[in-house]
Request: fold
Amino acid sequence: MNPMMLRKGIEIIDGLPVLYIKPLSAIVCTDLHLGYEGVVADRGTFLPKVNLKNIKEILKKAVEKTGAEQIIVDGDIKNEFSKVHVEEFNEFREFVNYLRKELKIKKIILIKGNHDNFIDQLKRPLDIVVYGQEALISDFLFFHGEELPKNKEGSTLIMGHIHPAITLYNNLGIKEKLRCFLYGKMKDKREIIVVPAMNYFAEGVGVNMENVKEMAPVFKKMLDIDRMKAFCIGEGETFDYGEVGKLRKLNIY
Amino acid sequence: MIEFYKEPFTAQQSLESLNPFVRNWFAAKYKEPTPPQRYSFKLIREKKNLLITAPTGSGKTFSAFMAVLSDLMNLAIENKLEEKIYCIYISPLKALNNDVYRNLNVPLEEIYKDISIPLTKITAGIRTGDTPTKDRQKMLAHPPNILVTTPESLAILLNSPRFAENMKEVRYLIVDELHELVNNKRGVHLSLSIERLAEQIGHDFVRVGLGATLHPLEEGAKYLVGYKDEQTPRDCYIIDATWDKKMEYIAMCPVTDMINASDELIENSIYSTLDGIISKNTTTLIFTNTRSGTERVVYNLMKRYKYDESSIAAHHGSLSREVRLGVEELLKKGSLKAAVSSTSLELGIDIGSIDNVIQIGSPKSVSRAIQRIGRSGHSFNDIAKGEVIVTNRDDLVECSVMLDAAKKRHLDSAMAPQNALDVLAQHLVGMSQVKKWGVDEAYLTIRKAYPYHTLEKQDYMALLEYLSGMYVGLESRRVYAKIWYDEKEKTFGRRGKLTRLIYFMNIGTIPDEVAIDVMTTENKWIGSIEEEFLSRLKPGDVFVLAGKPLRYEFSRVMKAYVTPAPGQIPTIPPWFSEQLPLSYELALEIGNFRGRFSKVLKDEGVGKRKLTIFKKKGKKVPEWRSILDSMPIDENAKSSIYTYFAEQLAYTGIVPNDKLMLIEKTKDPENVKNLLVFHSLYGRRVNDALSRILGILVGDFYQTDVAINIADNGFVIATGEEIDLDKKEIENLMKELQEVDTNRMLKENIRRTEMMKRRFRYSAARSLMILRNYKGKKISVRKQQINSQFILKAAEEISPNFPIIKETYREIMEDVMDLPRTKEVIKGMAKGEIKYKVIETDVPSPFSHNLIATGAADVIMMKDRRRHLRELHKLVMKKIGKKVESDDAKKGN
Reply:
């Protein structure tokens, strides 16, 4: 299985929902929603606990394949719809320990989403680098996506937050919703990549079906999502689906 | 022993078994006991368990209550009547409960009026989900002697310690509308409540079951009385007075030619027919099959004709209590011209004088048809009148044969779901709240309920493990566990402060009727549709709602988004709804009718030449005409049936029937898919299994996805353009069907269908994995919505034998599908008793019209998921390539 190159130095590995940035020797992931099952249990749905386990497995595969030395989490370590839960603390600690001890990750960088402030108190004890809304690392500008990126530097932007997916129907009308990466150019000519959510239970938003302009200010103001290219992942493979705009109102059946 | 009691007692013997005060009142008011009463008065006096089936207006309810009142009156005379519950009356519908309560109070008041000595009054009380809090509290302090309640409320009361105390003297348990409970999970739930009650109060009681049409009666009786111990069923007498009421009914076709009439014409005609019947009668009860159908009928009648809120009203489960009571009151007073209901008014003893019942669309079973028609005609000697208005060509034949079967008294059978683990989960939680149980002790109690008599120990244990939260780590168990399970001690008991409330607020077996909001892409609300309907929609499909054609775009959580599509022809038929399945017996009767009727037509040369004129002048009546004349159907129905068959014969020369399965190879109207239409007349439950087995065989052999559509009279297997089976390949397919191990094949492959995901979700909700009410708050359906397929996958990671998964498979294989009958059909093919013929048509034949028009009900994804994704990618890129080309061409490149 060849990794899919988005462009030189940036790869999608084995259809996993993570990005490998070679020049930084970093694996980038987003929207972990650690402690998700605990939060949902509060609302009366008692899911088997598989999210953290699944995230660990994905990162293990990615690190083994690439030898990456850093992990960058681009926001939404926890859910947006609740106050901090003890489960989230516990899972986050377990997550960091796993990266350090099992995967031998040297540097862990977190870019906070709007609701991740609880991490601040764990910065020192866990020895992780934490940034507020955005972070410029070398030429890459990481931001979560809830706000517009303020920094005008960096030639490549990376965001999460919207849980991108593409909804497709085949010739028999069978529906398939595939998580995807979005890759394109902003109006100011900078590159931008949207990374899909890691959360086991995140279905994703069909960006080729709905109007997603309201979901993140960057879609409203700084780029045309229809011109972005979609790279869908599933069953260990990556599929280049081309421009999102061409995937609208596509009736094959 | 379950046995029929054939000889009624004399009126005198029956009356003599009653207490004198009760007897005098009864004799003065009614003179003679009705037929069912001539059994029950004496038998209940003798403390026998009874199952009584009789039509509306035959005094069924009194047949149970008079004996009870008699016993209580005797107690009152001896000054032994205390403020305790002696009799529990259960009925599945709130409407009925209000009624029964009212009708009990009348005799109670009147009997006591004529008594000069001071006697303790017998009291009756009602307790349902609708009962206001202050009445509930009053009841705790002053329990009624006769409690009127619902199955769900009973399950709640078992867990209320004070109430349970008041039920210690229960001597009689009456279950009404038994036929509504026997064959579904609601009845299963009730059967466990009844055994729990007996266990809790430490003694048994007389069980009386009342029902309208039920078949086989022995099954109903076994359900009612359950088992005394591991081996012995309890005794029960069966009294069958089903057919004692005169009925007149007819199937009506709104247009003369159902086959060639436009949807609009059919729609208009349905409403004008309705208006015609309503104006001719005093009060008409109209049944549709869905909630949205009910709303649509009321809306249209008001819009098109002179009806308004004072003359016509809707009644269904989603309306508030006040609204429902209001409608019931108006009906009793006789002030409504028509009441429209989905199923909520199907049951009940008396909602005023309904003199006519209309059913729109097929009621799907003879029993239900009789049951509904029997709602009309107030007293026992009145004639019940009803019409079934058919809405499409297959409805037409189905309803005609159904009513004909009713004339011949052919009922369809029903069976209780066995060993439903999700319902049991609810009760285990309830049981754990009441006391600490020994694992074996509870097991034995549960097995006394008929639907659980063969419950496997390991399934039961797996359920205990699930409920005690063993599927998550220790740190989460505090939140997840609903019971405390001590494996060493082999006991289980209560756990968690919130569990009590969880149990009370989440009881129920009917999945929340999910109404999907339909919004425009500008967020304007248009109306609502059922979840089933949504699952069939693909972007681009056009359907009509609130009188407007709409194009479906996409859906998010519980909202469907559409754009207006003025002037476009709907691709989904308007009266479509996923209904209850047609019974196997009735399906065979329809198949048989098809065989007979088409043979007669063929013999007369119809079909070979151009369509002959329907009405032949003079001469002797042709045989096909006599057949139609002998059926309870109107002239339009006769001409439409004739046209339907004649066109099919003209087109293909064959009409499929119960001994001949027609396999029609054709293409869909857009020419994109290859369709195999199986005209298989065995009812939905058999077709569900057949279609999937064949779909799996096709899919696996050709390594492709397969879409299927399933109906009562056939099923369709759709494949992509490249998968084009020729006649030889189809015949090989049929041969393979006869050699396959059906159980194993289905079990291994159901996983790849949409049905699995949907049913899993319902089961998860019943098993209290997904709550609709938690910590005192109602969880909006929106918040409940995590994609089922993720929850299912997560559960599978724990164990493939996870009880909820196991129950989903069981429900699909046993309740949804009918495997034994399916095997029968396949064996019939192998023996040559059922023949099949493959034909090829360019355009789908008339008989396949409905099967194709309603789209795909489910899919069987190819085993190799990776390949599925690759093929999808190829298809999409190919289509886009074409789009790019045509876009370029438009630009003049």
Q: What stands out?
A: The longest strand of chain B covers residues 548-556. Chain B touches chain A through 62 residues (CB under 8 Å). DSSP finds 35 helices and 30 strands in chain B.
